[in-house]
Amino acid sequence: MNNMMLTLNAADVSKLRTMVAAVEKEMALVLGTLTTSETQPRKTALEMTWSNLVGMLDLGPEPEMRVCPECQHLCMMGATRCANCWIQLPAPATKAKAA
Ligand SMILES: [Zn+2]
Q1: Model pTM greater than 0.70?
Q2: Distance in Å, CA 9 to ligand 1 centroid
Q3: Distance 84 CA to ligand 1 centre (A)
């Protein structure tokens, strides 16, 4: 059996998240027009298949980023140093936890 590995970099994953969101938006628009009992099972099947596909992709939430104060490079929120200019980044501002 061919063991296929799909390796994506952070930019690809970010693009995928955007595309998944776009497809979901379009699906909601199209599926919103299908309300008869005839189309309902197909709608449910499509939603389940889509949800399985998104689950397989396992994209997770978009990572929080912040801009380096020195060089404006985009850094991960939890990073302690800028990956571009290596300055020490200040501790990320702690956000109030949503209830
Ligand atoms: Zn920097």
Answers
A1: no
A2: 20
A3: 5
Centroid of ligand 1 to alpha carbon of 88 (angstroms): 9
Cα of 90 from ligand 1 centre, angstroms? 12
Give phi and psi for 89, each to the nearest 5.
-85, 145
**Cα–Cα distance, 89 to 65 (Å, whole number):** 12
Q: Above 90 in pLDDT, residue 3?
A: no
**Å from CA of 38 to ligand 1 middle:** 57
Q: pLDDT digit string (tens) for 70-84?
A: 999 988 888 999 999
Q: Compute CA 97 distance to the chain's CA centroid, rounded to the nearest angstrom.
A: 21
Rounded-to-integer distance, Cα 52 and Cα 73, Å = 35
Domain chopping of the chain, boundaries? 10-57, 63-99
Residue type, position 49, single letter: T
